[in-house]
Amino acid sequence: MTDNLPPLLQVTDLVRHYPVPRQRLWGARQAVAALCGVSLQVTAGRSLGIVGESGSGKSTLARLVMALDTPTSGTVEVLGRNLHALPAAELRRARRDFQMVFQDPYGSLDPRQNVLTIVTEPLQAQRKTTRTEQQTRAAEVLDQVGLRRSDLDKYPHEFSGGQRQRIALARALITRPRLIVADEPVSALDVSVQAQVLNLLQDLQRDCGITYLLISHDLAVVNHLCDDVAVLYQGRIVEQGAPGQLFTNAQHPYTQALVAAVPHL
Ligand SMILES: Nc1ncnc2c1ncn2[C@@H]1O[C@H](COP(=O)(O)OP(=O)(O)OP(=O)(O)O)[C@@H](O)[C@H]1O
Ligand SMILES: [Mg+2]
To answer: Nearest to residue 188, comparing CAs of 121, 108, 261, 112?
Structure first.
């Protein structure tokens, strides 16, 4: 990557306030600050982990990076394009470069749709592809995540949690994205299955050149996949560095507490 190429992801001074319902009719209008000026950069090929306690703003950051929510102020640029300033049609096209995997493998897949419909959904928003092209590509991504072609006709309830997360990953991969935002991708899974899914994420990183923005409250998970970690605390990044460095030399009290909570590291 040469210096004059834009970073894969550039987040600048991102702020998101959510209004809180008024306590009294004439009371002051209140807001919670979920993010208070977050800036970060992700270079292609260098995955970034975001750790932080519950309510620190991790999912808010993920939604803004995915342009599923609008910032109060600040910008999100993917490959140099300011997502929140793009016209709708261009944003739709840009979405092929960044996809998301959610925490809940049960809630994130529509139970009424079969696997083929689920995994080809991101293609509907892209340039017209024929039914045959979609089926071929769906079979490819299913193969990449370790599922079978025959699974395309099945429905989510026929799969285990780990398999559902593989389906969610297949859906994310189908547009050949550069960036995958994964919000707690393994925390709803059984410990034995967690390792399988993490290894799969790692293989995809190596084989397809995927870069992750990986959100987790578990430092061990981030350590597995990420080259850098940012610690989010009350809507701000309070510390950032390589996982090894952060684990041995945490400066912020919250990071120290996180490290202390993972004795096997
Ligand atoms: N749609 C919303 N409306 C109002 N407040 C919100 C909304 N979404 C998030 N918040 C608030 O913003 C703050 C950050 O929430 P967020 O979901 O980003 O935290 P998180 O770090 O992902 O937490 P967790 O680890 O529990 O998933 C919280 O105080 C939350 O209550
Ligand atoms: Mg969250």
So the answer is: 108
